[in-house]
Write a structure and sequence with these properties.
Structural class: alpha+beta
CATH class of the largest domain: Alpha Beta
Number of strands: 22
Strand content: 25-35%
Radius of gyration: 35 Å
Shape: globular
CATH architecture of the largest domain: Alpha-Beta Complex
Largest sheet: 6 strands, antiparallel
Strand order of the largest sheet: 1-2-3-4-5-8
Distance between the termini: 120 Å
CATH topology of the largest domain: tt1808, chain A
Number of domains: 3
Number of helices: 9
Length: 329
């Protein structure tokens, strides 16, 4: 037995040499082994990999394995691993002794589902998106609809284990959601939330209109969305008509009727029980059952101002009445 220092492997390598026979005799006894000795590949064979952040690669040079197989040697490394013709074994030390166990594969790596998206938008798109988000959330909160979830510009992952399968609607609505699993989370994972969004809406811009028209329908069908709507906040520069809706039926998208209404457009969402009404410059939502508009943030501010004005007027009237009563005494 001889000892060699493996500079590439960073450890001492002990080589147990078996009695050698002349090469011609080896070839006569084992032609296959002789062929391997004569043809040592100098390329690295593909190694199993783990992809993702902090990915690791592991493997063994094909030339090293060929050398071991050819010479009938076993290489014992001081790091506690044995490489032989039948595989790789790990030898952890337990109480000073070594125990063998088979390495089945690379270690598992946690999959990252990043937040997003990172698509810039103009003020016009931002205003319309925020108005709809506030109106829908306030409406479901006031009605006490359990498991209703409204999100905006949030990455929605719908294939566990594959973070590349993702879509981020400007507005999405889902019912039957496990709210604990989604509240304050950087992304929406369908398998954790327990429900797929049934409604999606995109507010198009010059940069996104082609994608919203030609790419997103297939994505939303794959996700399982029942209704897909598009809004052109410019009023018709990008889409004609500026409000468009489609309903998925038997695996295909069919247009939702959008008709002229009071100088704007109106279309009905069956999954929400709401009418979507284009009233330039806003997209308003009409509660069919109650017969009233959903309140966006402008409406809520106006209502709060009106209530504050009424309260001040009532307090002033009360103060005046008290003053009169004091004078009469």
């Amino acid at each position: 037995m001889s000892r060699a220092h493996g500079s590439d492997m960073g450890c001492d390598v002990q080589v147990r040499r078996e009695p050698r026979m002349p090469a011609p005799l080896q070839a006569r006894q084992d032609p296959a082994r002789a062929a391997v000795v004569d043809c040592r590949p100098q390329v690295r064979e593909p190694s199993p990999q783990v992809s993702g952040d902090g990915a690791r690669e592991w493997g063994v040079e094909a030339s090293v394995l060929t050398f071991i197989l050819a010479c009938g040697q076993s290489v014992s490394m001081s790091m506690g691993c044995v490489v032989s013709g039948c595989g790789v074994a790990s030898r952890p030390r337990v109480g000073g002794a070594r125990m063998s166990s088979t390495v089945a594969g690379p270690p598992e790596v946690a999959i990252d589902y990043p937040e997003g998206p990172r698509v810039p938008e103009g003020d016009l798109q931002t205003r319309r998106r925020v108005e709809l988000l506030v109106a829908l959330r306030q409406w479901y909160d006031s009605r006490g609809v359990e498991g209703a979830w409204v999100c905006s510009d949030l990455n929605i992952y719908y294939r566990e284990g594959d973070p590349k399968v993702v879509v981020a609607p400007d507005i999405a609505v889902a019912f039957g959601v496990d709210l604990v699993a989604v509240e304050n989370q950087p992304s929406y994972r369908v398998w954790a939330a327990g429900a797929t969004p049934c409604f999606a809406l995109e507010i198009v811009s010059a940069k996104t209109v082609r994608t919203d028209l030609h790419v997103k329908p297939a994505k939303y069908a794959d996700l399982g969305v029942d209704e897909y709507w598009r809004l052109d906040p410019t009023g018709g520069d990008l889409l004609d008509p500026p409000l468009q809706g489609e309903r998925r039926h038997s695996g295909r998208w069919t247009p939702i009727e959008v008709a002229p209404d009071g100088g704007g457009l109106r279309g009905r969402s069956d999954v929400l029980g709401l009418d979507l009404c284009w009233r330039p410059p806003k997209l308003r939502l009409w509660d069919i059952a109650v017969g009233a508009w959903l309140l966006d943030h402008d409406d809520q501010i106006a209502r709060a101002d009106a209530e504050a004005s009424a309260r001040r007027a009532a307090e002033a009237e009360l103060a005046e009445l008290r003053a009169r009563l004091g004078d009469s005494r």
